[in-house]
Design goal:
Blueprint lengths: L12 H14 L8 E2 L2 H8 L3 H13 L3 E4 L3 E4 L22 H4 L12 E2 L12 H11 L2 H6 L9 H15 L8 E4 L1 H13 L5 E6 L3 H9 L3 E8 L2 E2 L8 E6 L13 H13 L3 E5 L15 H4 L5 E6 L11 E4 L5 H12 L4 H12 L2 H25 L6 E3 L7 E6 L7 H9 L3 E2 L1 E2 L12 E5 L8 H12 L3
Parallel strand pairs: 4-15, 6-7, 6-9, 9-10, 10-11
Antiparallel strand pairs: 1-3, 2-3, 5-12, 7-8, 11-12, 13-14, 14-17, 16-17
């Protein structure tokens, strides 16, 4: 491999080469069994004599770090090595982030037990992997790779066309390709919109309870966050401060409660935005999976003032590792959004975009959604049966007809310690999430948010029977 050796400074060149190779072996940069360049090759690269490099190699060989194989070269010796030392960037405490970032920490996904009720976990086994593999392979041909260099920050034009057609047919969203910006998931879509709309110190209204990563995103951009309560009809428009320039909402399937915003409330929110010169970010969170009722039209489709930025994602529809999402925005915002996309990371990976465009155009996305909806509907009914039966003594269902989770609040008469329930359930292999974890205001509404995307249908009844036993204190 092309290993970097620095000869800056004074002293014995062979000793410096030895020390750097020695340290690289111990900290794992050079792994057991890895082949080193020949002494002649490394000497030519470093512009030193071959004997200088050979002396360093001979010393490492004598100490058991290297082994020479006749006719094959010099290799890192495996037998004489223990665990690699941890190699870290330079330490020191003088360089610090802005105060805001000191209290935030990235969430690292953790493995769940056999009964996984975590939220936002679609079932990867439902994903049509073979069809996807074929489409990706088709886009990785040499001719296409050579033709695709840096591209439009808005995204691959055939994908933008396919997205506009898909959301137009399935969700009545009014858009063509020029209205779409392809992003790395819904989170980046919200980030781009916020970057071009929110001034430092500006007011942003978010739902309470709501989606914590979006709240933290707005905070990181210097926004002043105002929590707005959600009732049975959706976000309480009368509680939105007039100073808010941006409102983030999930009207089709409120996260995490799961309720659907009423048509009356949607009209009121659009009227409020027009009167107060504000923009609404409509996150159409996992609305594809509906089990009953006819879906209401998105805010974007009934917006007559150009006040809505519509956000969607394929991470929940397909698989999380497919980091592709999109936004549909008014024409007045498009130049700024394209520039923000370019300054962020230019554009998403083109071969994946092209494969997804074909996936949509060939009808595979619609077919997958129909198949997945049938599978999730079975799990949804099993969870409802338990919440209405053996768990009804402690929990009350929040009505929901779509998505990958169900929310249930603690009944006022049931004196239940939800954190204790979650802890004891985890000992039985049941992974749960608390509704209070999605609240930023006190007192928080307590309950459970039960995701069913990541658990087999046959495991749901025994898991919830065990959960009932936990509630009973057994």
């Amino acid at each position: 491999m092309d290993f970097h050796v620095s000869l800056a400074g004074r002293g014995d060149l062979a000793a410096r080469i030895y020390r750097q190779l020695h340290d690289a072996i111990l900290d794992g940069r050079l792994r057991p069994g890895e082949r080193l360049p020949s002494a002649r090759e490394l000497a030519a690269r470093l512009e030193v004599s071959r004997n200088t490099v050979a002396a360093a190699y001979e010393r490492l060989t004598a100490e058991g770090f290297l082994v020479g194989k006749v006719g094959a070269g010099t290799y890192v010796q495996a037998d004489a090595l223990g665990p690699a030392k941890k190699r870290q960037a330079p330490g020191g405490g003088s360089v610090q982030p802005r105060p805001l970032w000191r209290g935030l920490a990235a969430r690292t996904p953790t493995a769940a037990g056999p009964y996984d009720f975590r939220v936002g976990m679609p079932d990867p086994r439902l994903f049509p992997l073979e069809s996807w593999r074929r489409l990706v392979a088709r886009e990785l041909r040499p001719g296409l790779l050579l033709a695709r260099q840096y591209a439009d920050p808005s995204g691959y034009e055939p994908l933008r066309t396919a997205i506009a057609r898909h959301v137009g047919v399935s969700r009545s969203v009014r858009a063509d390709a020029d209205d779409v910006v392809v992003t790395n998931g819904a989170q980046q879509a919200v980030d781009l919109a916020a970057r071009v709309l929110v001034e430092p110190g500006g007011c942003v209204a978010v739902e309470e309870p709501g989606y914590p990563p979006v709240r933290m995103l707005f905070r990181s951009l210097g926004a002043r966050i105002v929590s707005v309560p959600v009732d049975a009809e959706g976000i309480d428009v009368t509680a939105i401060p007039k100073s808010a320039r941006l409102v983030y909402t999930t009207p089709s399937h409120q996260f995490p409660l799961g309720i659907t915003m009423s048509l009356r409330r949607r009209a009121a929110l659009l009227d409020w935005a027009q009167r107060n010169d504000a923009v609404i970010i409509e996150d159409d969170y996992d609305s594809e999976f509906r089990f009953s009722d006819r879906p209401l039209e998105p805010l974007q489709s009934i917006d007559r003032f150009g006040r809505v930025v519509y956000v969607g994602s394929f991470s929940k529809t397909l698989i999380p590792m497919l980091r592709l999402g999109f936004l549909v925005a008014p024409a007045s915002l498009q130049p700024a959004l394209r520039m923000a996309r370019q300054l962020s990371d230019w554009h998403a990976e083109l071969s994946t975009q092209a494969a997804l465009a074909r996936f949509v155009d060939d009808g595979l996305l619609a077919r997958h959604i129909r198949r997945a909806t049938r599978a999730y509907a079975v799990r949804y009914e099993l969870v409802l049966d338990a919440l209405q039966g053996q768990l009804a003594r402690w929990l009350r269902i929040v009505p929901s007809v779509s998505g990958l989770h169900v929310c249930a609040t603690v009944r006022p008469e049931a004196h239940v310690d939800i954190p204790d329930v979650i802890t004891r359930a985890a000992k039985r292999g049941i992974a749960l999430e608390s509704l209070a974890g999605y609240c930023s205001e006190e007192p928080a509404v307590d309950g459970l948010v039960l995701g069913y995307g990541g658990i087999d249908a046959e495991l749901i009844p025994p898991a919830l029977r065990q959960l009932a036993a936990v509630f009973r204190g057994e």
